[in-house]
Specification:
heterodimer, A: alpha+beta, Rieske Iron-sulfur Protein, Naphthalene 1,2-dioxygenase Alpha Subunit, Chain A, domain 1, four-stranded antiparallel sheet, 13 helices, 26% helix, B: alpha+beta, Nuclear Transport Factor 2, Chain: A, six-stranded mixed sheet, iron ion binding (chain A), Rieske_2Fe-2S (chain A)
């Protein structure tokens, strides 16, 4: 086994070299040149999550997002078809939309008034006579990007040559199917999101979603704020949970095995903390079967599914990371519920989300503090390694044939970093 | 009570509320609240149906008490390093007043001394106050914090 301090930093010549099986070099958090290389080699050549279909429910509904640093618009056209468009006017390059989301009939560039349809086509521009015989409108629509969806999640890519989304997600699809069971029998609906930035590298957050080890330490104050029965459920480090490497950088961390399938075990007793919800639903006249289904689903799934590189299906919400610079990252915690589900159900989901997530949650600020400390600590010394070797000597094979470690192993981090290494080792791409 | 007297009493109350938070007199702060009161930091500034929207914070009595415990008990790493704060408020305007409720809006800024420097969180804050014999109880406090609808940093304080 390699000793932790024995690898001289001088032997490293590239970012790919900085990822070993059991450790990564801290320069990956702080070197601006590596960050630029990541935007090209990782974000420009893979599937990047942008939105859930429920965020653009109607014709004209849109959401702005980013692939790496590149602004895009996800929009539904008049016929209900989805488009992912580069957010850049084809005339002089201004963005045509700066709102987070909304509904529109068209996108009009604020600079010179070029107007684009919901499908990105250039429809009209002021004083067109000056373009007579020199501009074909059909060639000057907003650039349209390749996108594919799975379980309502919309991913896009700047690289037309990469494998299909279906193939890229591979073993993660089974877990996405399970994750989408948490809306109590109703279609999954985005209910809003929390957005915040922290002064640290994006990969620190990528690691965290598959890090159960920190939970009882960093989230002690959250655990103190919940009832004993729930605290017992969250005391999962000694339980039967596990982490599985799902391939292509994806991994799943099962913390609460009993909550993997939210459509199973519907006859389990109702947890104390959800009894008031059950009572309220009963008062509204909901059937016993529906109450059981809703109450079982309301707290979310018992696992975090980490999808490389920028999103996770994390217990009860989508966690989306947006790299801003080498030492700044924006995080979106996207709350989900059920479309058409009883208001009490969606309200409870939002209140639970507010309790832990977001800038003022009882969990997120403490995560943020730990991530910030990692970024700060990465400035110490020159020969600094970040260890991701936890659980390496006790791996097994899952029933799906994947590498599997204990719930608090760093198996998911190693999975993500090996995909990162593969992409960063690729020859310079266009 | 004359308009001037009401304005003076409301201003004094708002200053008291901010002062208690700045000086971490949390038990006294909790005592300012009507039990059914709600402390809300919405994400979107135009929202009024807070219960049916996602908020940054939506604290009823129980959550207020839990939040104060979190700010005080030393278990949360993000609050342990939290140093002093300064809250300033101005532009106080009474929007509605009756014997039962007074609605007041003010400009509010929380300055925090963070290890990265002093950060400012400007906000429009609206209180619904319930007059008592000699003061008020807070029925609702809504802090519409600048950038909450875009992105914030993490926050270790109450607005």
């Amino acid at each position: 086994m390699t000793k932790t301090t024995s690898i001289p930093v001088k032997s490293i010549t590239s970012a790919a070299d900085m990822v070993m099986e059991d450790r990564v070099h801290k320069s990956l958090y702080s070197d601006p040149e590596i960050f630029e290389e990541e935007l090209d080699k990782v974000f420009n050549h893979t599937w990047v999550w942008l939105a859930h279909e429920s965020e653009i429910p109607d014709s004209g509904s849109y959401k702005t997002a980013k692939i790496g640093r590149q602004p895009v618009i996800v929009v539904r056209d008049r016929k209900g078809n989805i488009h992912v468009l580069q957010n850049r006017c084809r005339h002089r390059g201004a963005t045509v939309c700066e709102k987070k989301h909304g509904k529109t009939k068209a996108f009009t560039c604020p600079y010179h008034g070029w107007g684009y349809g919901l499908d990105g086509s250039l429809r009209a521009l002021p004083k067109p006579e000056e373009y007579e015989n020199i501009l074909d409108k059909a060639e000057f629509g907003l650039n349209s990007l390749r996108f594919e969806t799975y379980q309502g999640m919309i991913f896009a890519t700047l690289d037309d040559s990469i494998e299909s989304l279906d193939s890229f997600l591979g073993g993660a699809k089974k877990w996405m199917d399970l994750f989408m069971k948490q809306s109590g029998g109703y279609p999954v609906q985005v209910l809003g999101d929390h957005r915040f930035r922290f002064p640290g590298n994006w990969k620190i957050q990528l690691e965290n979603t598959t890090d159960a080890y920190h939970f009882p330490i960093v989230h002690k104050s959250f655990i103190s704020s919940i009832d004993d029965q729930t605290a017992e459920v969250f005391d999962f480090l000694d339980g039967d949970g596990f982490v599985e490497d799902l391939g292509n950088g994806h991994s799943v961390m099962v913390m609460i095995p009993d909550l993997v399938d939210l459509e199973a075990n519907l006859d389990d007793p109702i947890p104390e903390r959800f009894q008031p919800l059950a009572d309220e639903l009963a008062k509204e006249g909901k059937s016993e079967a529906e109450i059981k289904r809703l109450v079982r689903a309301v707290g979310g799934s018992g696992f975090n599914l980490n999808l490389f590189p920028n999103v996770s299906c994390s217990m009860a919400f989508f966690r989306n990371l947006v790299p801003i610079s080498v030492d700044e990252t924006e995080i979106h915690h996207v709350a989900i519920g059920g479309k058409g589900a009883p208001a009490a159900f969606n309200q409870k989901r939002m209140r639970l989300h507010e309790h832990f997530q977001g800038p003022m949650g009882f969990g997120t600020p403490d995560d943020g503090e730990a991530w910030e400390r990692v970024q700060h600590g990465s400035k110490a010394g020159t020969d600094g390694w970040i260890m991701v070797n936890r659980g390496m000597s006790r791996l097994s094979t899952s029933e799906d044939g994947n590498v599997k470690g204990a719930v608090c192993s760093e198996t998911g981090m190693r999975a993500a970093y090996q995909q990162y290494k593969k992409m960063m080792a690729a020859e310079e791409k266009e | 009570m004359s308009e001037n007297q009401l304005y003076t009493r409301v201003s004094e109350f708002l200053s008291l509320e901010a002062d208690l938070l700045d000086h971490k007199a949390y038990d006294e702060w909790l005592a300012l609240w009507e039990k059914s009161g709600l402390y809300i930091v919405p994400v979107e500034h135009d929202v009024t149906d807070f219960a049916n929207h996602l908020n940054v914070a939506y604290d009823d009595d129980e959550m207020r008490q839990l939040r104060i415990a979190r700010l005080s008990n030393g278990e949360a790493v993000s609050t342990v390093g939290a140093e002093n704060t300064v809250r300033t408020l101005s532009r106080i305007r009474i929007l509605e007043a009756s014997d039962e409720l007074v609605t007041v809006r003010c400009a509010y800024c929380l300055y925090e001394n963070n290890k990265n420097g002093v950060r400012a969180f400007p906000a429009n804050v609206e209180f619904i106050l319930k007059p008592t014999e000699d003061s008020f109880l807070i029925q609702q406090k809504v802090a519409r914090v600048m950038k909450s609808n875009e992105h914030l940093t993490t926050v270790s304080y109450l607005f």
